[in-house]
Amino acid sequence: MTLATLLATAAGVSAGAGAADLLTARRRRRPRRRGAAVRLVARVGAAINVRASSGLAQRVAAAGLDRPVAEIVALQGGLALVGAFVALPFVTSAPGRLGLVLALGAPLAGYLAPEVGLRRRIRLRAEAIDAELPDVLDLLRVAIGAGLSPRRALTEVGRRHPGVLARELKRAAGRAALGEPVQDTLSHFETRCPATGIPQLVAALRRAERHGAPLGPTLAAQAQEARSRRAAHRSEQAAKAAPKIQLIVALLLVPAVLLLMAAALIPALAAG
User: Fold this and answer.
1) Per-residue pLDDT tens over the stretch 177-188
2) Is a pLDDT exceeding 80 seen at residue 65?
3) Where are the domains of the chain?
4) Which residues have a Cβ under 8 Å from the Cβ of 173 and sit 6 or more positions away?
């Protein structure tokens, strides 16, 4: 294999890595399904008397999960045991105080892993709801302006819009239709939608339910405000992405072009 071939190969690898980084920066990971290993770990953890941390039920709801808190707590206990067993062989052989750090840190890391996953899911969910909020508010305003009651408007918007927020609206309307008190339904809806503009929407729905206050002007103002927040957030994301893209171009794509040029020049220089 000649030097030119090696340089061309290195250029291809570098360019491919740069393109992959640029593509994966825009791609959202899909949540993975639970496997048998996770269920087994949860069963093992259920045997441990671990208490739920403060606010765990609210975080589970904000993450959009329909699982009992006891299941999350069992998973935390099981992962703590797994971390302890994995670290056990290294505790005795670790130098100095590193063994103590491993003995304490591995179970703690296992216990906190579900918490980290919940918080990440809440953050992604809040971003999705914030992005969908202006369109959903406009649809609600149009539906109510067409003469639908607020509950019927929630149902119709939830049925016709494909987003996360619309599904939560449909879920809330379904709970109210089953006889749950509207105030409890709205509180549950607010907990499951951890986005910036949701408290204002819930407050407007409460006023409409209690006092019959008109929703149209309020929804229009909230939609405009949510649209402004979305534009500001996208501008901030674009500003943060620019240095990352420049770094990828400088470290991967530019060297790939230089390597290709070197691969093309070497045979000519060798022949001369």
Assistant:
1) 899 998 999 999
2) yes
3) 1-27+215-272, 31-181
4) 151, 152, 154, 155, 158
